[in-house]
Amino acid sequence: MRTPIIAGNWKMNKTPAEAKALAEALIPLVQDAPCEVVLGTPAVNFAAVSEAIRGTNIKLGAQNMHWQPSGAYTGELSADMLLAAGCTYVILGHSERRQYFAETDEAVNRKALAAVKAGLIPIICVGETLSQREEGYTDTLVAYQTLTALTGLTAGQVAQVVVAYEPVWAIGTGEVATDEQANETVGVIRAAILGQYGDAAADAVRIQYGGSMNPANAGGLMRQPEIDGGLIGGASLKAEDFAKVVHFDK
Questions:
Q1: Which of the following is catalytic: 36, 103, 128, 166?
Q2: Residue 165 CB neighbour total at 10 angstroms
Q3: Cα separation of 35 and 3, whole Å?
Q4: Is 66 a catalytic residue?
Q5: For this structure, is 226 an active site residue?
Q6: Of 94, 103, 128, 247, catalytic
């Protein structure tokens, strides 16, 4: 049985004081969560959130990292920096990183390798645009993105990562893939991993849905057999809403 994982992606929101307040409000609401709970916050909030969640069931995540351990990369953060700040997870290859900052599949792969080597758990994002779905490229694209991102990892390492299927057309738009569409595409991702890394890795890897999951649709999506969690955007910025997603089983 795979342990579900619900991760909030706060994106470019919240000051340290606001982040601390949100984390503190969440603690009693998710302490009996039926899943793993992760807060992906801007780096400026690491210290405040890490202190607030210490000793709780909430884990800290970053939204990006560089693949090099150090060097002349102004504005970037290394895996070791994230670990030292208290991070357990790091979100890699989010569609906004790909769209606005020209991140390539190869760059995501280099980051994933560096994250795993350092002991971080990457949440690797893959997904198609609306035009790509309409033209019938969804399955080919998400399989390619997934396997490219995982290139160089062993089957055992792949079993430990998290993949987030985020249809680009459903991020921040209010549009959501149907439960069946989401489950089908997550199944495609799992099948690609099965073909490359075998049964054990495919059975163990956790695959989230990341396209506007919210309190109203989380239950239906999480009842799908292939979906192991959610990467939550807007709904993660309000404690009550995020807690309702975390408690998808109620």
A1: 166
A2: 28
A3: 6
A4: no
A5: no
A6: 94
